[in-house]
Amino acid sequence: MSLLTILNDDIKAAMKSKDKETLSVLRMLKAAIQNEQIKTGRDLNGEEELTVLSREMKQRRDSLSEFENAERDDLADKVKIEIAIVEKYMPKQLSDEEIRQIVQTAIDQTEASSSKEFGKVMSAVMPKVKGKADGNQVNAIVKELLQEN
Predict the structure, then answer these.
(1) What is the superkingdom listed in this entry's lineage (predicted)?
(2) Model pTM?
(3) N or C: which end of the chain has fewer CB within 10 A?
């Protein structure tokens, strides 16, 4: 079952239960996926849908940090609710330890020995963790492990 079908079913359920916040977020997700379909001119596969979801999640996390820095708790609370809704459609997130193992394996495979080879390691890691880990989290772990080597 495609993500679009799941979203449509959940939109109907949110409408019936009069859950305006969930309905709003689900409509935004659906619109983002449909816009991507229009851009590509075909239905999206699972990986492409995951890319769209990841992009939406990143936008909300960036907004959250901006609102928290500006001490706008009212807007930060709203974005936290949106993040929780989007997370329901994301794959299970990797733990720090799982990310560390993937990064260490990539460092061993690429034979990276200094922080100058950061890009090489990141390009090996990101396809493996796509949608399953936050890029900023992966970035920090790669930097940390490269400094240890």
Answers:
(1) Bacteria
(2) 0.75
(3) N
